[in-house]
Each structure stands twice: as C-alpha cells, then as structure tokens.
Amino acid sequence: MTVRVAMWSGPRNISTALMRSWGNRPDTVVVDEPFYAAFLSRTGIEHPAAGEVIASQPTDPAEVVRDLGAPVDAAVHYAKHMTHHLDQDADLSWLSAFRNVLLIRDPDEVVASYVRSREACVPADIGLLQQLWLFEALKGHPQTQPTTPVIDAGDFLRDPEAYLRWLCDWLGIEFTDRMLHWPAGPRDSDGVWAPHWYAAVERSTGFEPWRSRTINLTDHDAAVASACRPAYQALAARRLVL
Questions:
Q1: Quick count: other Cβ atoms within 10 Å of Cβ 144?
Q2: What are 176-205's pLDDT values in tens digits?
C-alpha cells in the first residue's frame, strides 16, 4: 500500500525544501500545492501568475481530492499543502487516508520573507491561523490519526536528519540519506508559480543550516506577525522536540 503524507505548511517556510527532500527518494512521488488553483478561483485573491496557476490545476476541490486519492506507482505519495488554501467549510473526512503533519515557522520570519514576493500581506495569508484550525479539526475527527505531529522549521533546521528519521519511523518507511541532499534546479513536479517563489530552493542542494536572523518589519507587517503569534505559540507548545 502507498503511504500518503500530507505536509501542511504556510508560505515562506521550508516546505519546498522538504518537497525536494522527499522527491529525492527513489520510492516517492511528490505533489506541489494541489489546492492552489481552487483557492485562487474561490477567493479571487491576486497572486503572482494567478491566471497561470488557475489554468494549470483543477479548480474544483472535489476533483483535487479525487486526484490525491488516485492510485500511484510509488511506495510513498507526498503532498505539500498550504493550509490557507483549504476551505474551512469543506468536508475533511478525506484526510483520514493521509498521514498529516503540520510545519510551522516563527511569524516574524514568515512575514519578512513573504513581503519580498508579494507586497500585500494580511494575517490570513500566512497560514498559521489556519494551521491551528486544522490541528483542532484533525484532533476532533475520529477517522483521522489520533495525534498530528507539529514540526517547527527552526528546530528542524538544527538537525534535519533527526527529524527526517523520526518522520520515516512514524510513517513506517526506511530513512535514506538521499533526503538530506538533492541536485540544484527546477523539477517537473514544481507548480507553475515556481519562478515567482522558488529561486532560493532551485539554487539549493540541501537544507540551509539554521541561523539567527535580524528582522525589520514595517508597522503594518509587524501587526500581521503579531496577529499570528498566538496561533504560532499554541502550536509551538505542542511541537515535536527531539
């Protein structure tokens, strides 16, 4: 049986680097933000290359769910998701077929990175509020896993191998050191939005070591980060610490 992983992140996290990591496994197929077009179509929010994104994917969430559950010729199916792409009124029962993981990052760091690619920024753009909602929704869903691991990007980057080994053990699959390094460049599996968001990852060949960052936010952007901080702190209190 195929092990199906749903990694739920917000933007400007290490989610694309993790997709590279899993995509470098010989037994894994990866999917890049399958609900992106449905999200843009539903909300009308302006994003870079929005028209291309909408043309490149199904805009019906039900079709996306069917595609995610379709048989694949791989031992592992890894989907990179953005939590703010989910419609919070949608039926989440389909998540019972997936091993769900939350990937969080300090909101100051997220906002500082986000506004380099998209000028407008509000709390709902950052994904943390939706991550907390999803965490609580999964906890109350009897068909889904009893616990949802929460991984902080800062912790992960201090010891990627330890966290990847833990995830593989939790999933019941074998760890491979191919997950720690990958060839530079784009991938066919990348979304059409990659030229606007993936420049750093395309240059990378592995996880960038954690480092302390000096962050200067405008008053508006600091307010956005502040609005997301309680959700971040609530999730960070439940995070996996190795």
A1: 20
A2: 999 999 999 999 999 999 999 899 999 999
